Predict the 3D structure of the following.
Amino acid sequence: MLTEINFDGIIGPSHNYAGLSLGNLASAKNAGGTSQPRAAALQGVEKMRANLRLGLHQGFFMPQNRPDAAWLAQLGTRVEDADERLLANALSASSMWAANAATVSPAPDTRDGKCHLSVANLVTMPHRSHEWQGTLAQLKLAFAHPAFAVHGPVPAPFGDEGAANHMRLCATHGAAGVEVFVYGVTGGPFPARQHIEASRAVARLHGVNSALFVQQSEEAIAAGAFHNDVVAVANERVLFTHEHAFADKDAFYSDLRAALPEVEIVEVPANRVSLADAIQSYLFNAQLVTLPDGGMALILPTEARDNTAVWTWLQELIVGNGPIRQLVPVDVRQSMANGGGPACLRLRVVCEAAEVDQRFLADEAKLDAIADVITKCWPEAIDPTELRSPSLWADIRRARAALLTKLSLDALLSD
Ligand code: SUG
């Protein structure tokens, strides 16, 4: 049976606040602050545990090799000599945000009946542009079964940020769906990270039968929605979106209704929740999931509960007659301070669980083992002024190696 598995990026031991992401308001606001990698990674593990306990299927991806000496070598320098900014870019733990790892088109949507995954090139941001090699190595391992087709990145300069700009609507996960590729147009104060050329390329490479290409509103990008998943999320037949998420919502909604007549659009009006409140609280960066009893829940950051306009609106939503019936706040504050909510931390893959390399699938015992390595090996705190410290680099490398060994994934050591 086809099921949705959420693969979370384990938050790496180099997690820090270097303020690298232009257009990501949380990253800019917290630049220079002291991070807590151990607490951050444990928050991520607890989120996975909570999802397992809701009866959801859970997987994970490993942190990448940081500092990325191979990338610095391509730039003609070394970890020891790199200037401050390059070194921060080489040290980022940004692969934790697995929603940017790849775009996934499940088997029912594709012409050859395979589940296609295209690793995202992430070329717009320097600190993320060297993630794809390590991500691709993991995708090739996790999805080696012939039921999957794993693709390399779309070539530069066409920016591709993966599933964060991709929504799939369908009657049920296992049914054929319509795939919505959301792109941005350059011109506002912040970069548009997803280019339409990249979206079209991914849809072609995957052989997607039913695809819509939809422009994100410039207003949303300018307000800090650097990815579509900051202002909209979909699950099965439900689209949960802010009123101002798209450039031409009427055209989009009508195309969507034509492609999937049973679609239910739950739109949050701007006069109830402003774009600013939506982005500060990450209301839409929720995991909208189908629970085993068939009802839908929103797994939200606790910041959404702390925002009065957002929480009041949500309380009305769940007592109404709509499809979303349950709210599950989770604490991922360390990731949130870099602009990554619950939905950023996961990549959804609809597939047969038995066809995935079992080393990447979670159960309670494995999460205990992961938490144990994190508790023992992850740095407790990183102040950005310490990023030059050779002993910190050694600690970060040792911590990752310990986790890979624990999970029998030593094959990834050099990636
Ligand atoms: O790409 N933050 C990430 C957050 C990604 C969120 N993902 C989704 N919306 N799916 C980004 O902006 C901050 C890094 C820093 O500033 O050190 C950062 O990369």
Observations:
- The mean pLDDT is 97.
- The longest helix spans residues 37-53.
